[in-house]
Design goal:
The structure is a single chain. The chain folds into two domains: 128 residues, Beta Polymerase, domain 2, CATH 3.30.460; 74 residues. The chain is 46% helix and 11% strand. A hairpin with a 2-residue loop joins strand 5 and strand 6. The radius of gyration is 20 Å and the shape is elongated. The relative contact order is 0.12.
Length: 231
């Protein structure tokens, strides 16, 4: 198996290709290389698989979510040919659209490229894997937060607040009066993860609006944002 790296995933953690997710990607990359398929851009790997490969081999992951914009059909064909498509293998690779992965807006700046068997894969940082999980936040997602912090010491409360402020426009009140899913899930996560309640308006939304006002953002635009966010 030929392995080379662009940037390392972190100073201390290295990918473990002997994990189920790692073995699946190794088989995929080898098949791509043998077919001579030219990959135009790195294959994005997300979901729980990057945590299993890079954080803890024991972390459960039912499949490997990957995306390759512009070549998804070609990638799906290879996955099917090697018997790793859904329904053909207990541990499978699922090729999905990139928009399924919804991390923080700055995720590409933190993502790492790893080349395996001459095929480039793009691994989002663990922080962005967690931010994407916050959209759903089932019990297993909360466990992922706890696992990553146990293994890496991150994210800290200040780190998570900083990134969530970058997504402030996703915190809004719906027409039926209900808070958006990200708003509700943030309120659900904070007591479990940081041991206290969080004031989303005061700690995430308002600091951003204050900063926008301080930098001279048009008042009418700020009012439009407030109306849109329902605050």
């Amino acid at each position: 198996m030929l392995i080379s790296r662009g940037k390392t995933i972190s100073a201390t953690l290295q990918p473990d290709w002997n994990t189920p997710a790692g073995q699946a990607l190794a088989k995929l990359s080898l098949a791509i290389k043998q077919k001579g398929l030219l990959i135009q851009r790195p294959i994005i790997v997300f979901g729980s698989a990057p945590l299993q490969i890079c954080i803890d081999p024991a972390f459960l992951s039912a499949d490997v979510d990957v995306s390759l914009t512009g070549q998804s059909e070609e990638l799906e064909k290879v996955v099917d040919e090697i018997g790793l498509s859904k329904g053909k293998a207990p541990y499978y690779i699922e090729v999905v659209a990139e928009y399924i992965f919804r991390p923080g807006p700055n995720w590409r700046e933190r993502a790492e490229i790893i080349t395996l068997n001459d095929v480039p894969f793009l691994f989002p940082a663990s922080l962005d894997i967690l931010l994407a999980k916050l959209r759903r936040l089932e019990e297993k997602d909360i466990f992922a937060f706890e696992l990553v912090r146990e293994k890496t010491g991150h994210p800290t409360e200040s780190e998570l607040l900083h990134e969530l402020r970058s997504s402030y426009d996703i915190y809004y009140i719906q027409k039926n009066g209900r808070k958006s899913a990200l708003w509700e899930n943030t309120e659900k996560l904070w007591p479990r993860f940081f041991g206290r309640a969080i004031d989303v308006r005061g700690e995430i939304i308002q600091p951003v609006l204050d900063q926008l006002a301080a930098t001279g953002t048009n008042r009418d635009y700020l009012e439009e944002i407030r109306v849109r966010l329902g605050i």
